[in-house]
Amino acid sequence: MDFKLTEEQQMLQDTAARLVRDAYPFEQREKFSESELGFSAEFWSQLGELGLTAVPFSEDVGGFGGGGVETMLVMTELGRGLTLEPYLQSVIFAGGLLNQLGSDAQKDDLLPQVAAGSLQLAVAFDEPQSHYNLHDVQTKAEAVDGGYRLSGRKAVVIGGHSAGKIIVSARTSGDSRDETGISLFLVDPNAPGVSRRVYPTIDGRKGCELFLDNVQVGADSLLGDVGNALSAMRYQQGRAIAAQCADALGSMDEACKLTLDYLKTRKQFGVPIGKFQVLQHRMVDMQTELEQATSMAILAATFADGEDNDERSRIIAAAKYICARAARKVAEEAIQLHGGIGMTWEYNLAHHAKRLVMIAHQFGDDDHHLKAYAKLMQVA
Amino acid sequence: MNVNYTAEELAFRDEVRAFLKSELPADIAAKVKLGKHMSKEDHQRWQQILVKRGWYAPGWPVELGGTTWGPVEKHIFDEECSAFGAPRTVPFGVNMVAPVIIKFGTQQQIDHYLPRILSGEDWWCQGYSEPGAGSDLASLKTRAVRDGDHYVVNGQKTWTTLGQHANMIFCLVRTDPEAQQQRGISFLLIDMKSPGISVRPIITLDGDHEVNEVFFDNVRVPVGNLVGEENQGWTCAKYLLTHERTGLAGIGSSKAVLAHLKRIAMKEVCDGKPMLEDPLFRAQVAEVEMQLMAIEMSTLRILAAAKEGGVPGAESSILKVKGTEIRQAITHLLRKVIGPYALPFLEEEMQLDYDGELLHADYSASLAGDYFNMRKLSIFGGSNEIQKNIVSKMILEL
Ligand SMILES: Cc1cc2nc3c(=O)[nH]c(=O)nc-3n(C[C@H](O)[C@H](O)[C@H](O)COP(=O)(O)OP(=O)(O)OC[C@H]3O[C@@H](n4cnc5c(N)ncnc54)[C@H](O)[C@@H]3O)c2cc1C
Ligand SMILES: Cc1cc2nc3c(=O)[nH]c(=O)nc-3n(C[C@H](O)[C@H](O)[C@H](O)COP(=O)(O)OP(=O)(O)OC[C@H]3O[C@@H](n4cnc5c(N)ncnc54)[C@H](O)[C@@H]3O)c2cc1C
């Protein structure tokens, strides 16, 4: 075992950390969040220029050839700065789906653009009734002359408001919760029949509902085989979860630092409140959660790009469970230990808290992953 | 021992139910049930209905417009009001400053202020906390200096709930900076329209404007607005805090919100089945329901003991801690039950009069915001850590 970073990995982390520190002070983030785009176009292009959007892609499409550890390092720094750009959705999740399922033509066309950051993608898997179950798909894709016709509704598509293309899961056969019969399509959000209701999210980002009303797509929009997408969806969501855990880690680390700092400076009853043992122990508990989450994020990162098997699925589920729980605990405790000030919009801690709690609401909450783990748990 | 309501108590409950059924405006109840924010007008409309029935100020002496209810009647009333979706009474006038005026004020103050509270002419807010004085309230610095028939007030209050609606504020101010901390404090009633007062909103993490900062710059307050004696304000403050804490467990409203959770959990689906039929989720709902059952019993037990001998003491701190933990647990489950729909932040759908297309359901827009907003329960009214300090000192004698 060796937990040390290579020199290259260390450089990557430093690059990401420096960029976030310089470009993402909290006041700037507020402005980005309130803008129509909902994030910083400039920061997004800097991610491209510095090669950070290229990290997980192979060298032949202009990538950096990085694996789970490299994306973890980038995501941790992006989380620390509470950045708003759809890096996880576009680069890791959608990019991964394209890379795994795309035809040579699709990959040649799109991957270099995604790796360069010039094309932003989004993933639309959730539906109003699906409650994190990827196989619960009611959106229909009917084979028609020259392609498919899509109808249905996709829920809470983060980054879908600004995406150049959206990867949509739809049913080409079977009933709503069958595991087979699900296919993926690359949908142009400006195509006739597509409409979006765009909204901000409570953690400061933007997303949309995606409505598909007899949307005509060409045969070349199909991603992967017909009716067989579920295992790739799960695998790539696993990569997204590993990245999400790292995102949470950066934010948790920051929330712990802010709280520790506050315990040392805020005075009540003539002493810094950090002198009260009950608060010391609470801070220790937060730090312990952070340690546990760090371990699981690392474990998930090292398995994220590995072989698709039960062991990997268990580790991903466990990582999400532990990190989502830790994130909520850290968020709630950080607010509590700050008192009233921790509840205010103008203090960045409150925004970390919101992000940390919302980690559970994408790609499955702790209950979802607890059940997933229990199902896969080895009994002997 | 008999843990059931007596025949009289049951009759009282029926009377309250009949009243709520016929008098609570449906539009107000609908807003409360969907967690929408109440306007000042909504509060005042409901207040006038209660005043007419003589039930707005249950804790006051009858001759001033109160009732003869004991703690059990108050509990029943509170629970039924919550169950029917009546707005929670804004406590600052009727339940906070009024008991202090009744106990420590002059006849003139009683005659002047109490009718104005009932009529809604005065809307009060609470000016205790300061940037440097939160849990350590006695370290407050806002200064009041006697100048003829006036006090001249300088300083700052913060976290003033609904101060933007208020025309009156009751403040703890320092009148003797030389005295030991608690001794030099006075309880002062201040007209918010006095020259030199400014109010600045504080936006909370859920995007709401509920609290404010209030600044005092050479504000002249008539000496007749002092309640009790000069430098004896801490006695008033402590008296008020025990009154404040008894209502903070919020059993009635937790029960109503739990019922709301169950309704929603029957509508939201996971794997084609209602969330409430998911064994893991159902168990979590069951757990808070059992906790709530226990705290209701504890509340009634502690209230019954107090019936013999006045207001509950440090036991109310136990109720506050547990009661707020339960309420926070319910809001956590409410956020969880809607899955990804906790993410959209739909300010327009949270508005009182929104009648456009709903993104998901009429109940969903406010749930994540509510969860964050309810973090306040363990912070204000004496933080839960401070409550535990009280229990360990007063009950356990540690
Ligand atoms: C099964 C067993 C095996 C042991 N084996 C050994 C051994 O091999 N060699 C050996 O030398 N000793 C051994 N011990 C003794 C052990 O180290 C002591 O029990 C331990 O140090 C605690 O001391 P105590 O029992 O006197 O409890 P106390 O120190 O009296 O503590 C009582 C409680 O107060 C808490 N407490 C104490 N101080 C503080 C503080 N400052 N802040 C907050 N909380 C505090 C403690 O955490 C504990 O909950 C053993 C004990 C047990 C139970
Ligand atoms: C939404 C909201 C509405 C409010 N409304 C009003 C209002 O209308 N009027 C008003 O006057 N005030 C109001 N308050 C203020 C509230 O009473 C204070 O926030 C509260 O007293 C805590 O003070 P603080 O925020 O300064 O936190 P601090 O006192 O700084 O506490 C920070 C942390 O330290 C802990 N702590 C402090 N001392 C100790 C100790 N001795 N032992 C262990 N832990 C300790 C606290 O529990 C907390 O976790 C409101 C607050 C909020 C959040």
Query: What is the averaged pLDDT score of chain A?
Result: 97
Note the beta-strand portion of chain A. Answer: 15-25%
Tell me the CATH superfamily of the largest domain in chain B: Butyryl-CoA Dehydrogenase, subunit A, domain 3
* Helix/sheet category of chain B: alpha+beta
Q: What is the chains' assembly state?
A: heterodimer
CATH class of the largest domain in chain B: Mainly Alpha
Question: Over all CA atoms, what is the radius of gyration of chain B?
Answer: 22 Å
Per CATH, the class of the largest domain in chain A reads Mainly Alpha
The name CATH uses for the topology of the largest domain in chain A is Butyryl-CoA Dehydrogenase, subunit A, domain 3
Write down how many β-strands of chain B occur, each being a DSSP E stretch of 2 or more residues: 10
- Total tally of structural domains of chain B: 3
Main sheet characteristics of chain B: 4 strands, mixed
Q: Shape of chain A, please?
A: globular
Strand adjacency order, main sheet of chain B = 1-4-5-8
Helix percentage range of chain B: 40-55%
Major β-sheet strand ordering of chain A: 1-4-5-8
Main sheet record of chain A: 4 strands, mixed
Number of separate helices of chain B: 13
Tally of structural domains of chain A: 3
Report the CATH architecture of the largest domain in chain A. Up-down Bundle
Cofactor (chain B): FAD
Keywords (chain B): FAD, Flavoprotein, Oxidoreductase
Organism (chain B): Pseudomonas songnenensis
Family (chain B): Belongs to the acyl-CoA dehydrogenase family.
